[in-house]
Amino acid sequence: MSMNTDNIRPGDLEWTCCKCGGKLEPAPVVVEYLGNEFTAELPRCPRCGLVLISEELALGKMAEVEQILEDK
Amino acid sequence: MEQLDLRQWEARCIEEKQPWCIAACPLHVDGRALCAKAAAQDWAGAWQVLLRTMPLTAVLGRICDAPCRDQCKRGEVGDPIAIHLLERACVSHPRPRRKPAPVPNKPKSLAVVGSGLAGLTAAGDLLRKGYQVTLYEPGAALAQGLREHYAGQVPDQAWDEELELLNKLGLKVKAEAPVDDPGILDDLLDNHDGVFLSVDVLDPEAWPLERGEDGRPVTARPVQATAREGVFAGGLAWPEGFSPVWAAAQGRWGAASLDRLMQGVAPGMSRENDGPQETRLFTSLEGVESLPMVPAGPEGYGDEAAATEAARCLQCHCLECVKVCPYLENFGAYPKKYAREIYNNQSIVMGARQANKLINSCSLCGLCEAVCPEDFAMQDLCLATRQGMVAKGKMPPSAHEFALLDMRFSLGQEFRLAKHQPGHAASAYLFYPGCQLPASAPGQVRAVYEHLCASLPGGVGLMLACCGAPAYWGGQEAMLAEALAAWKEDWQALGSPPLIMACPSCVDVFRRHLPEVEQRFLWEVLAETGAPMQAPPAGALAMHDPCTTRHDKAAQQAVRGVVGKAGVELEELKLGRELTECCGYGGLMSTANPPLAREVITRRAGQSERDYLAYCAVCRDRLASVGKRALHALDLFFPPQGEDDPAARPNPGWSQRRENRARLKAGLLRDLWGEEAPAMEAHRQVKLIIPPEVAPLLEERRILIEDIQKVIFEAEAQGDKLCHPESGHFLASYQPYKAVFWVEYTPEGEGYRVHNAYAHRMQVKGRARP
Ligand code: SF4
Ligand code: SF4
Ligand code: SF4
Ligand SMILES: [Zn+2]
Asked: DSSP assignment, residue B607?
């Protein structure tokens, strides 16, 4: 199961944080499901900590990993 | 599921039992597979089938007397399959070359006396097991008598081929052996570890052994033991009453006994599969046209004729349940296999539970049990397994959650209601429409309620809630108990009046779990109150019974009675009443496996050209969801307001189903009881603009309007959102329960335009520590 590479598309970094107006930057983020934690590189506001999960990631790789963990 | 349970489940499904041809054949030659290969004119494949079980194939394939024929299932609809002629057609093609599998030599020496079909078979089998075999033949060469006897049927070349194979396997031959010597048996036992006598070609008088009444050495099949230890015999008297296949089979069984003996195992151990058997297989002959045997010339069949004859084979299987259940078909096997897969799934300690989807996709409709000759109830197996998974915390959260949340909604303040009829302090009856009729046709519920109030004396109370069916189907026993307890409390507060039930699923759940509750089906009541027909249909309607009425003839009859009396012509579907099919919602199939549920309802919708008549709101809406014109029986008597063509009204969709329930309660409270509905939560005030291209996406992803409202409400209140400088869109997420919802939107007027929405279940915990 790999959640740690290739999660960011160039378009994802076009989003900005509304709170501070800052640009999102790739950062290692911990994600968790059913007690399993992974570190993944995700677009994140360096100041406010807002993280973007893109549609592509949510419905693609993330959904796959969720399914695997549910069947474990 | 314990080991014993698994065995019981497995034993119940007879799909793997042998077809009649295999069971009846003394050698269990696979007639079914032979027919399949021959029908395809795959002669190499047909050879392989024969080689698996038939000794001396080139010879026996030409002379087998086919005792299996009397048993062939095809014989009940035409002539039985001429399997012996198909064998003959097969072996007249060249034998495919195959490398003999190397066998380790066993340091045991065995003697076979006489080269009859029994002796040659025994010798071949023992050689293939690695024994040293010596054949003692009284004549000058092997199989001389047989060669002459079958000269017209078996060409010399076939004999040469078979004998050459034995030769290659290392058979030692002692020709002109003095087999009549009185001391021969002692000599043989001195020099060998065991002996097989081919009494089909030997003079039984010559053997110093105890005799049976027929004068032959006593043998009981399939052990073929004689009174003398280490000596086995086989082969019926020849020529009278002689059967080639029986002789060969007895050779095979004798060899198996010798093999056991050599290994120190009792020769009689586990021999129950040797020899002809009864079979418990069931094969339906429904719709099978009677066909005569393809005539054969003196040389048997040519290839074409053989293929035509083979194509008459029924390819006997049971699969009755698989034929009618798309779910069982979808997973590629049949209940016996599924029972094993489910069992294995439960015993997994590490690794993927591959059968989760299988367990959670069954609609629990019980059709399998209704059609199965052995009453295999896949629904019981799946439900019990789900309960076990829930108890162990191994139920995948995503499998049923959506439906369970919907149930929670129905049990919550936005819908739940329990009241006496306005102006009454007690209820002689209690109308209970369930949750999905209000979700589908709230106006109709109100009209029915008003009709009941006007027609029945003593006060008709009203209760809105959920019966707990989603929890029951999902194996959530604790949740079900909780839902039922809440339900019962409301009911008792009204004085425990008898129920008038509109939803067949509620009827089923209450019968199982609240048997103390007195209930009548709405249609039995309507038969008495005489609701007049308001909207006659354009033509005859095809009747769709919900699967929860499978064993409820009275309910099926009640609807037909009222509708028939109103003059509506009904067409019965082939799978109706006790054989009716699920709409794909039952058992939470549509939550656990949406594509399969869609296939199920699509197939159902295709069974008649006519508009369907349902009496479960979910059935009607699911038919509508695949474009099938369908009416709820109530539509005829209480037509939905503002619908010119109720059969064409679409499935309201998930969000509207909630909206309908909430509005029904609020409207009834206000209009009938003069009460205000509880105030809506703040996020429900958020106004949304949902473009037509986005609506189906939300439906498919099962994202509710309310979920979107929550996301936007929180994002706007907290300012936690992303923006896209180019498009000006906002993107925000919120986790109201186990799922995280994302919405892309822009403010517009007083509301928000929704561009996209999606969800996932994994949670972001924060930045990883460097
Ligand atoms: S119909 Fe075919 S499969 Fe069935 S018993 Fe006859 S030969 Fe065997
Ligand atoms: S209960 Fe219904 S859906 Fe489940 S296996 Fe039986 S027939 Fe198929
Ligand atoms: S109907 Fe289905 S479950 Fe029953 S014996 Fe046949 S294959 Fe097995
Ligand atoms: Zn920021």
From this structure: T
Is the Cβ atom of B338 under 6 angstroms away from ligand 3? no
- The ligand whose atoms approach the alpha carbon of A51 most closely is 4
Q: B88-112: per-residue pLDDT in tens? A: 999 999 999 877 777 889 999 999 9
- ipTM score: 0.96
Across-strand partners of B756? B744
Peptide bond into B239 cis (omega under 30): yes
- Residue A30's identity, in one-letter code, is V
Chain B interface residues facing chain A, Cβ-Cβ under 8 Å?
Answer: 351-354, 356, 396-399, 719-726, 730-731, 733, 740, 742, 756, 758-768, 770
Strand-pair category, B429-432 with B417-419: unpaired
Q: Write the pLDDT tens digit of every residue in B211-254.
A: 766 666 767 888 999 888 999 999 865 555 788 999 999 999 99
Q: Looking at ligand 2, which residue's alpha carbon is closest to its atom 2?
A: B365
pTM recorded for the entire structure:
0.89
Q: What three-state secondary structure class fits B578?
A: helix
- Cα–Cα distance, B436 to B505 (Å, whole number): 10
Please name the residue whose Cα sits nearest to atom 2 of ligand 3. B321
Contacts of A8 (CB under 8 A, 6+ apart): A26, A41, A42, A43
Encoding tokens for residue B713?
Answer: 């409400």
Residue nearest to atom 5 of ligand 1 (CA): B72
Q: How far does the centroid of ligand 1 lie from the alpha carbon of residue B378, in Å?
A: 27
d(CA A29, CA A46): 11
Give Cβ neighbours of residue B671 (< 8 Å, ≥ 6 apart): none
CB B760 within 8 A of CB A58: yes
Residue that is written with structure tokens 């025994």 in the block: B122
Q: Is B435 in the pocket of ligand 2 (CB under 6 A)?
A: no
Q: Ligand 1 centroid to B103 CA: how many Å? A: 34
3-state helix, strand, coil in chain B (%, to 5): 45, 10, 45
